[in-house]
Predict the 3D structure of the following.
Amino acid sequence: MGKKIVIAGGSGLVGQALQDYLRKEGHQVYVLSRKEKSDPNYYYWNPSLKKIDANAIEGTQVLINLSGQGIADSRWTEARKKELLSSRVVPTQFLFSVFQHSNTLEQYISASGINCYPLNNYDKVYKEEDAYGDDFLSHIVKEWEKSADLFQSICKVAKLRTSVVLTPTGGALATIAKPIKLYVGSPLGSGKQWMPWITITDLTRMFGHVIQQELSGTYNAIANANTNKDFTEKLAKVLHKPLVLPNVPGFVLKLVLGEMSTMVLEGIQASNEKVKAKGFTFKYKELPQALEHVLKGA
């Protein structure tokens, strides 16, 4: 039997795909929106003003929070860093304040980030119980997950540490593919840094699995990891485009992106054994197969 599920941050790439998937699975899915809409599938909310439609709370069994401004949308000034953190923590704290007296909420599921582990150990495959790193992204994830844990006093809490999500349109894959299509693509920096990834298909399935199995705990949402060089080469092959330019030097990316360059010059490997031990199976585990599926529907 389907559940009443409310999604905060449901208008992004992941949120839209997740809505579609969960409805097909038979759930009643509603989205929190900062804009007033006549659509009955949307509830108004504004965490900054501490306002929310009471119907969003009534009878809700699963609350999914995908809220948060895009990490790579603009350069990391000090003001931007504060925005990135508050856009995740403040909505979570507000949601807890309005749901803490709910007598129907069974599960709270939070998006999180795979970039929470130390960046200086190339050979280590990180597990969920490993310590956070000490860089900015690790700090964001730590505070993000800490706020999610507020819900542990009222329901089960699951946190999905999402890696690079491969989607047909938009997102990181479109950004990486664009210069390759224009014949100016090349690996970044040394090209040896890891790129952990998951297809949007498997990510939405993982959310569904967490709901179906009523799981709690932290899970690495990663199908596999390839080096930046390998990822770029395999993507170019799928796109039938040559790579003719040398690697983009790391110092150039640091000049252009500032501290945000760590996102493309550093990377990690992480284990997905924990979620597999809970019965989840990935449909797309190898990069060529995943790229063919995402880009061509194969």
Q: What stands out?
A: The chain has one domain: 4-296.
